[in-house]
Amino acid sequence: MTRSLSDDGPDDPPERTESDAVADPAAVTGGAASDDPGRIKVGVGELAVTADDAILTTSGLGSCVAVALVDRRAGVRGLLHAMLPAGEGRTTAASRPAKYVDTGIDSLIGGLDDAGAD
């Protein structure tokens, strides 16, 4: 579900850039800033982790799997948009872990840990 910026009330969220996403650079294969300020768009085969007020969004889920994890105490959350179930035996599993559910979840958890999640 994508939350509209209008749900946030009268205050506009701050401008965001790709560098505002907090994550393990080796694990993240996306999470680029969207055209909307205050949002990080996570594309197919990508993940992003943030520790600020950015809204993580994805679209075109189709038969893919999205996984969202949140640590409310640490104020950290992440979103994975995986395309395929398993990276085992695939040459791209190491270079594009977010493409696969199994390696993507491991990378998402690692990114959350790196950002201060418990």
UniProtKB/TrEMBL annotation:
InterPro entries: CheD-like_sf (IPR038592), Chemorcpt_Glu_NH3ase_CheD (IPR005659), Cytotoxic_necrot_fac-like_cat (IPR011324)
GO biological-process terms attached to the record: chemotaxis
Source domain of life: Archaea
Sequence segments annotated as region (Disordered): 1-39
GO molecular function, a single term: protein-glutamine glutaminase activity
Keywords of the record: Chemotaxis, Hydrolase
Name this protein carries in UniProt: Chemotaxis protein CheD
